[in-house]
Amino acid sequence: MKLCMIGVRGHYESVLDALPARPAMQVAGISAGADGDDVAPLVRWCRANGHAARVFDDYREMLDAAHPDVVVVAGPFERTAEMCIEAFRRGAHVFSEKPVAMTLAELDELAAAHARSGLHFAAMMGLRYDPAFHTAQRAVRGGAIGEVRLIDTRKSYKLGRRDAFYRSRRTYPGTIPWVGSHAIDWIRWFTGREFETVFATQSAQHNRGCGELETAALCQFTLTGEVLASVSIDYFRPQGAATHGDDRIRAVGTEGVIEVSGGKVLLADGDGERELAAECDRQIFRDFVAGVEGGECLISAADTLAVTEACLLARQSADEGRLVTFGERGKGGE
Amino acid sequence: MKLCMIGVRGHYESVLDALPARPAMQVAGISAGADGDDVAPLVRWCRANGHAARVFDDYREMLDAAHPDVVVVAGPFERTAEMCIEAFRRGAHVFSEKPVAMTLAELDELAAAHARSGLHFAAMMGLRYDPAFHTAQRAVRGGAIGEVRLIDTRKSYKLGRRDAFYRSRRTYPGTIPWVGSHAIDWIRWFTGREFETVFATQSAQHNRGCGELETAALCQFTLTGEVLASVSIDYFRPQGAATHGDDRIRAVGTEGVIEVSGGKVLLADGDGERELAAECDRQIFRDFVAGVEGGECLISAADTLAVTEACLLARQSADEGRLVTFGERGKGGE
User: Fold this and answer.
1) Which residues contact A256 (CB under 8 A, 6 or more apart)?
2) Of the four, A69, A94, A273, B85, which is 20 to 30 A from B194 by CA?
């Protein structure tokens, strides 16, 4: 199985983590995907780990020359959809940084290209493999809290120093699709329900020279069955905090409440309150390859597309200051 | 100073807690305010504590006969505004259960009656006097987290057994104004800002025979200066949980984050993370009396009316499924 890697932005390291255990999987090509992005560390890693990867200036040339089975997309946000589409057109499965599209028009084009291809497609929703979130989700879907009625989520990041591409909506999808995408994914993943409406707000104040980057945002979703869900997002986590992110979820059900906080999973139900052991025996890229091979995996193409749509509709709600109904844009064309 | 007490629903015990230290303050009259509500325990308390309180069937007769300086209103929700207005008309200060009105029309009438009276008026926002919330609010307003940008709040209650009046909107204001009012009050109190818009959702599913009572709700406010705030409300707290309520706030500022959770106050800022000692040396009814006497107190009439308006507009948003802008109803009449 041949791999091509486009870009070194985002979470492509999860691919490298999985390769040593799969010697039959070879990195055949590397392309920066954006002028000025430095692929040298990735090239060094390949040489040190027995991958005879060629480096290409143009990622399309690479796809044509290397005939990869799998393409890893972690280039500039504004070219993610295009890169995924080019890969599908050449018959390659795609493992992509999220969000997989910057606009709804791009998303529709990407969804159509994927549907025609019949190939595997997954976004880098790495927090599905975090031991605490993984354990909590399995408990909830296993019935530990009865029927889920309400979900609250939190994504709080340090602002730190940000590359220039974070400053503009041309090169950064906005904070709701970038930071919030994980939380929006959890909501759908924990409930197994589909989104119906979203209202969101955001503010770019106090972003320390980061242009248009929003430093705070809130989303409020309603899912099928009147399940309510909230997302709280900010870039104000103090620089001195122990971890980069403060990631939390609280799922409230008819029979109990489960919370993930600080890497711990706490369940409260009729038997009292107790901690569940956090564990995950899966790895995101290993799982992706299982999906390629027709096996079971955690992140489907349907998940990838649905979460991207939810991110973009939430951003639209915040941009336009109005309630957005899922499916409303489809209706205009009928 | 003479006191009359109308009704035994809600948090009137905070009045009794404050009386032993103020022997000059006498309970002169008691009225149930609702057919079937039992005032016997309150009458017994008065006898045991040296208050020669007369019991009246009709609260208006009581107000006319007893000439109280202060009226405590904790009767049926649907008569709260009327009872407050009748007290103001007779020149009495009012300490009332919240929300102080069930509808915006009632609220406008009440605000006008209060404005004409020049009397002190405060709702029973008891959680302002909770040591943890009190300490966190003082830290935030003292600048501990810089400028507040985002607030997340939680009110989670056990459903337990509920009196029949909780089952109908005629006799219960809805879960957003009843349970959520505390959180809505915190948001304004912690930020010192005014509300601009609200979007809210709610569901009455799985309320175990409680009629119209909503078991879950979310509110999302925007305040002046693009400050964002969320409220999460539910009645699904497991019966076996250690406390009736799980009350939380998280205020995110430009220089730090403060959280109240489980009665503890945690501050994270440039110096790391630490717990603040939770303390409050004030008592809500003692504070109310200080306000009557022209002194400093935590809950003003302006707070009482503004929070009630925010509760009712949030409920309206959820009922009508639309974004509600504060001040929009005033504009029609200009």
Assistant:
1) A144, A145, A146, A267, A268, A269, A270, B238
2) B85
